[in-house]
Amino acid sequence: MAYAFTHVNILNGTLSPEGTMVPLMDQTVLINEEHIEAIYPSEANPTQNLCNYEVIDLQGKWMIPGLINAHAHLASSGKAPKKGSKPPNYKLLFAILSKIAPVRSFILKQQEKRAADELYSGVTTIRCVGGILDLDAKVRDKINKDIITGPRLLVCNTAVSVPGGHFAGSLATEAHSAQEAAEQTERIIATNPDWIKLMITGGVMDADKTGEPGVLRMPPELVEAACRVAHAQGFKVCAHVESSEGVRVALTHGVDTIEHGARTDDEIMQLFRDRHAALICTLSPAIPYALFPPEKSHCLPEAQINGKIVMEGIRDNAQACLDAGIPVGLGTDAGCPFITHYDMWRELVYFVRFCGVTPDFALYTATLKNAEILGIDEETGTIEVGKAADLIVCDTNPLEDLTRLRNLAFVVARGKVFANPKPRKILEVETALDEELYA
Ligand SMILES: [Zn+2]
């Protein structure tokens, strides 16, 4: 339970005033139980008695904080849609599974494996933003009780939507009125979540019209009612929003983090500031729709047009927030088509490529910045004495090439050490994404 990682170069998650992550070369990191006990230059105290530690000589490898995926769904795998297939009838599937206990146990097991895949890919914290019933909380509690292996989970359980809204009737309940939105929020709080999730606008997959992927579906008074109940009981609210009107309604009525985002204007930027709200940028879900040829994405032409609009909106919102000093976090939207539970490193690569940030800034965003936005920065997000031992180890400096994060030498999650971690891979998705990445 106590480890000494010796001769390791550390990128600790913080940025210098110049905006770079300055490495600490040739360090020793002591881990005791769940926490980081000490960090010191390996040469400074070569005689330190490490006999109570399992010593792991890292011989010049590189250590960074465990990644935080601020937006994921454990309910699905991220497989590519089949050719010519329509999106599944989630509502019907949900109606069946909610009545059959063995099906629920099967899905719970799948979710547990996906959480482990995230961990083995270097993600030591996930925020789950919309799931089936209270299954996400069940996975979280089993991990916390050491019954299964997995990352730290912050969960919303099921979300609140409206009839005909995003994932209504499957990953979200359907509120018909402000009163119902308040009642459903109360019921979700009774399932012991960490955050509350609202589905305020539509998305790429459920748009009625070409050119209108993020149409406002949840009336403002419902947003307000849900946020009021959540805030009164100490919960923050995140919301799926993919249009400017949606962002305006969300921020005016109490939402704390905008998920995805859309094109901004001065008024929207002021709303972000007034509410001290943050944006969670998710480029991964837009990539297949917007950039893949249809024969590869297997999406309909209208979904491709909508995907392009969403991608531009996400990019515009992220860049505007970065310019204005508004907090921007990162999440993958794992579980959506072509987004697996082991691809957080791709989101960092996309953040550099499409939003123009440096690799140092992308790594800082996926670690310390995400921890701050999620309110867990006293516990995790940097490599510091007293914080949780949430770390990953790469053979070489990942800032020289972020794609090096796809192969890790070690993952350490709350002090548990995993050597040569291997998530399960979905080859078809892997190939499709790599073709785009390396094109
Ligand atoms: Zn999502």
Could you explain how this protein is built, in words?
Helix content is 35%, strand content 21%. It is of the alpha/beta class. The chain folds into 2 domains: 2-65 and 381-419, Urease, subunit C, domain 1 (Roll); 67-374, Metal-dependent hydrolases (TIM Barrel), CATH 3.20.20.140. The strands form 4 sheets. The protein has a 7-stranded mixed β-sheet, with no helix packed on it. Strands 10-11-12-13-14 form a 5-stranded parallel β-sheet. A 3-stranded parallel β-sheet has the order 5-6-7. It is globular. Residues 71, 73, 129, 333 line the site of zinc ion.
| SSE ordering | EEEEEHHEHEEEHEHEHEHEHHHEHHEEEH
**How many strands, which pairing sense, and closed or not: the largest β-sheet?**
7 strands, mixed
Q: First CA to last CA: what distance?
A: 44 Å
Low-confidence stretches: none
* CATH topology annotation of the largest domain: TIM Barrel
CATH architecture of the largest domain: Alpha-Beta Barrel
Structural class of the helix and strand makeup? alpha/beta
Shape: globular
Give me the number of helical elements. Answer: 13
DSSP strand (E) fraction? 15-25%
With strands numbered from the N-terminus, the spatial order across the biggest sheet is 3-2-1-4-15-16-17
Tell me the Rg in angstroms.
Answer: 21 Å
Name the helicity range.
25-40%
Ligands bound to this protein structure: zinc ion
Return the CATH class of the largest domain: Alpha Beta
Count structural domains. 2
Q: Could you tell me the number of beta strands?
A: 17
CATH superfamily of the largest domain: Metal-dependent hydrolases
